[in-house]
Design brief:
mainly alpha, 2 domains, 290 residues
Length: 290
Amino acid sequence: RMLPKTTEPMDALHTAVSALSSYDPNPEDNSIEASKARVLRIVAKLPTIVAAFQRIRSGQDLIAPKATLGQAANFLYMLSGKEPDPTSARVFDIALILHADHGFNASTFAARVTASTLSDVYSAITSAIGTLKGPLHGGANQRVMEMLLEIGDKDPLAYVKDLLGRHEKIMGFGHRVYRTEDPRATHLRKMSQQLSLATGNLKWYEISKKIEDFMIAEKKINANVDFYSASVYYTLGIPTDLFTLLFAMSRISGWGAHVLEQYADNRLIRPREDYVGPKDQHWVPIAQRP
């Protein structure tokens, strides 16, 4: 409540996780078991933090989690004030699982580098969140949904062709690792369709499918995890500027597992560098300087 109303969502999350360290019951205990307990507490608290942030900035009362609901259903409940239907809860639960971990991406590597210095769990996780905030790592699904909203009732193929004609990127396609379809996208496509049918709102799924079919046929580029997660989250009623926070809320389990793995067999991560900058630069000797 003390943060300015203009606070960016990722900044609020970064601040909240950092503040959790002040409430740690055993701050001096750096054992693996104590670190594991910290990871579990952060995993448990992140959905409450994200939901509370949204309700506070919307001027709504906070909603406490229900012990009878799971992690995914509880988040949707705390966000909207209504218990989600089984389909919505299951779809969101699978979405969280699909985003839980994915190799040595930038934020995971940042968390491990911090952990390798034997800094605490909170510092490692805030390093990951800070890295995820960068637009080249997080935020792609938000930009996908912003594109879909901009298309609205217009012809999606004409819109995409116009972007490509101006040499602009279509968000949600291509991957640095996968040269075939991102296996996470396979599941998210089905979930987007399933959720759309359940809610009776097929608009965002249908626009997405037309764009995907065009990109595969014309550009031979497959959808990645961000493309269909956009329509899934939006159909669940989640504001677009919370999408990257949902990524963090999902990935916290992976970040935490990597941090614990680093602690268990630690060696300081200290990459070497090769200088590739300018050479033979002009300089003024000290004796000749004024």
